[in-house]
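Researcher: Can you fold this with 2'-deoxyguanosine-5'-monophosphate in place?
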Amino acid sequence: MSEDCIFCKIAKKEIPTEFVYEDENVVSFRDLNPQAPVHVLVIPKEHYSSIREVTDKEVFAHLMYGVQKTAEKLNLKEFRTVINTGAAAGQTVFHIHVHVLAGRDLLWPPG
Ligand code: DGP
């Protein structure tokens, strides 16, 4: 737990949040500022600021499993996953998270 980390507080249920998926390692929940009709964040319960700070490779497996289970729960067949690393790449919350986006044209690169 990192003090003042909003995602740690969500994972610890200190901020009431409806989870799409939860297991012993990860939770997922809807993004506050959705960029697509479906926009869910998958986070580990353990605090790591970004992909760069992860020291246990199991965390990556837990995150991807959380993505799979989240997609299953929401019946998503096609979706995009995004991980922003660092402010210049658009990271604003420094607790690693995987964005799961669906429900609109998500082809990349656009156009
Ligand atoms: P990123 O830019 O990759 O760091 O994404 C952070 C996302 O987190 C951003 O899309 C908005 C979302 N977010 C920030 N604070 C909260 C919060 O308190 N609750 C929820 N559900 N989402 C949040």
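Model: Folded with 2'-deoxyguanosine-5'-monophosphate in place. The first strand starts at residue 19 and ends at 22.
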